[in-house]
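DM between two lab members

TW: hey, do you still have the Class III HD-Zip protein entry open?
JB: yeah, one sec
JB: this one, 652 aa:
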Amino acid sequence: GMKPGPDSVGIVGISRSCTGVAARACALVGLEPSKVSMILKDRPLWLCDCRCLDVLSAFSTGNGGTIELLYMQIYASTTLASARDFWTLRYTSALEDGSIVVCERSLTGTQGGPSMPSVPNFVRAVMFPSGYLIRPCEGGGSVIHIVDHLDLEPCTVPEVLRPLYESSTILAQTMTIMALNIVYQIAQELSGETVPGSRHLSAMRILSKRMNRSFSEAVNGFSDDGWTLMDTDGMEEVSVSINTSPSKLLGSKFSSAEGIPSHGFGILCAKASMLLQNVSPTLLVQFLREHRSEWADSGIDMYSAATLKKSTFKLPSSQANCFGAGQFMPSIWHTIQHEEFLEIVKLEVHGLTQVEAVLSTDMVLLQVCNGIGEKAAGVCAQLVFAPVDSSFSDDAPLLPSGFRVVALDSELDDYISSRTLDLASSLEVGLARSPTSINQGGNSLRSKSVLTIAFQFIYEKGLQDKIGTMARQYVHSVKAFVQNVVIALAPSGPSPHLGSRPLSGIPEALALSNWICQSYRFHLGFELLKDSCEHGMLNLLWNHSDAIMCCSWKSIRVFIFANQAGLDMLETTLVSLKDISLENVLDENRHKNIGACVSQIMEQGYSYLPSGICMSSMGRPVSYERAMAWKVVNDDNCAHCIAFMFMNWSFA
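TW: and the structure you got?
JB:
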């Protein structure tokens, strides 16, 4: 029933009951099947996360079809997980009615084929039968059916990140919808339609792709691209990598003979990831884009601009400006890929000396922002920028820095996947308009996401350590700013960890808080809380300055409760707390002796723990001055759980 027209965008369906993650789409486009097939098979053209797609072998079949052996690598979206790769077979054939079918699936040893070797720094993922059915329409155009079905091996990432690899919603936004978007864009360009802001769309798309790809390269830091990790004590939450031979990153014009090492320059990248609570990716990235002056250091901006001019990155052989001779890009180009913005940002720096003012006269940033428009689905958003000057050309190297925020909420996935997604109506999610969405039961969705920050700098030979220290401190300061922004943007009302139902209204929570305090008084002879009554006890316990948490005392010791400080220390929420075990938190020495420690607590009633290190759910080390544990008994004097209290804790 679909007819050609500006609103015939198509529909997307999301699965929530299959193995792995899956999404499918159906749409009508104004291109012939052969052209659509060529576009969709060129995955690096439209899939931002695709690092490479190599056709290692191909042969024809008797019916005129083609079988290809492919190897594909997919970037990791955060520094906390490894990239993925696929070995697949792809079969393309034309049907009698003019339709084209493209089928693809992983090549595994269980199918009688060879077991393909693993690749360092990559986790082998699985593609279940996926592909495209492209049917011709009377009068021109095609109807496209897309199926994406993957197993991204979520068990290989930290528990808190697993929703990122178990979300069909994220697969739909980052792969399925991207495939439709590129077909629409190319169809529009080939049709010669005049759309406001669509001039130079091809050049814009190339620049956007380069920015996204270079940022992903920096986040992943592959050794075969020349990246090496600077020495660290292993406890630093901001990692710093250097690249002294970035010819692959910066283009073929930088050969070994005229590359950066011979001119005394290198590239340095400082990066980190952090868990955020109760703020949508859309809202946070939009705020960072609109309030750059509040988090950016103008001195560092000037350093980036100055080193760009001094380095060999400005090639005398560069081609003409990609916007035409004597032209420079306007301030903003909308909808490069529907909800993506490519823009030039003029840096306004005040209070400069005369020399600094001269250096900053043409300080501009090429900036790409996606996931914040009215039609954004809200599951991921990104702000990436790179310093350029007025002589910027289409082959000039780019060193992008920026932010990427991806939602981790399984609740959001369940909410979206229960509905038919209509691209023409913004996927009907509306997260771009509100920091919290409303689910079908009327309760606000708890929001949890992971933020990845990466900043790249050019450094001169001999200044590597100095610039590395500066970059690490800069990322720390930006992280601190983001944490304050998240608190400010959080919706008012109950604590973000509590969702829409306060704990004070749950009888089990009131009883547990009473048992915790009574057991502490019985075993240690002191009051845990001062001036508390039964109904105010939970509130005092929740806001206690020390991290208090409880875990089950049986063989599988998972956490069942934590106060606000405990959740902050574990970097988790009450919803996800049950997925964390005591063994995951303790350091190696205490992990080995956990059985004896629990036995002592159950027999003696309590135990003091000396100062030490434990781990948050994000894998960050947490130091504490001292800690204690005690047995919590219920009203029947039966053991209910074990309580822990960590005092004077901080991230190491």
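TW: got it. The chain has 20 helices and 28 strands. The first helix runs from residue 33 to 41.
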